[in-house]
Design a protein that fits this description.
The chain is α/β, with parallel strands linked by helices. The chain contains 4 helices and 5 strands; from the N terminus they run E-H-E-H-E-H-H-E-E. A 5-stranded mixed beta sheet has the order 2-1-3-4-5. The structure holds zinc ion (ZN). Residues 18, 20, 43, 71, 74-76 line the site of zinc ion (ZN). Residues 18, 20, 43, 71, 74-76 line the site of zinc ion.
Length: 144
């Protein structure tokens, strides 16, 4: 009977981050494959769906730790809310009903996200951590 080469990894973490193709959140955060549910959206925002996903991760899979990671040079930082709204309207002919706030400062965005999650009664934030990943030098900075 063969044994697995490595011990099974415990799923204990959820990650909320940006959809940016330059970031590999599992590798950057030092997680093992299979250790985390990873939720991504444009800008890594705490949306209603992000809260739904984090909540269900905790309730269905008993994850406890939540890591929020934003990054430098986000595409969501290159225009204003009006600019993004105009871009979507020009490209689709439809005005978005969702928030299109730009990510001006990733550190501020992480602090705002941590605050939003702490306000939610659907998410256990006892083990909540925030980080900013620098896409230029590869550094990861904790944000409190
Ligand atoms: Zn981004």
């Amino acid at each position: 009977m063969s044994q697995p080469a490595t011990p099974p990894v415990e799923l204990d973490t959820s990650v909320l981050t940006c959809m940016d193709h330059r970031i590999d959140p599992v590798a950057i955060l030092g997680l093992a494959e299979g250790q985390a549910h990873v939720f991504r959206n444009a800008g890594g925002y705490v949306t209603e769906d992000a809260i739904r996903s984090l909540c269900l991760s905790q309730q269905l899979a008993d994850t406890e730790r939540i890591l929020v990671m934003h990054h430098t040079n986000c595409k969501a930082s290159e225009d204003t809310a009006e600019g993004y709204r105009a871009l979507v309207e020009a490209g689709t002919g439809t005005s978005p009903t969702w928030d299109v706030q730009p990510v001006i400062d990733p550190y501020e965005r992480v602090r705002a996200a941590l605050g939003q999650l702490r306000q939610s009664t659907l998410v256990n934030t006892a083990r909540l951590e925030g980080y900013v990943y620098d896409v230029d030098d590869g550094s990861l900075t904790p944000v409190s």
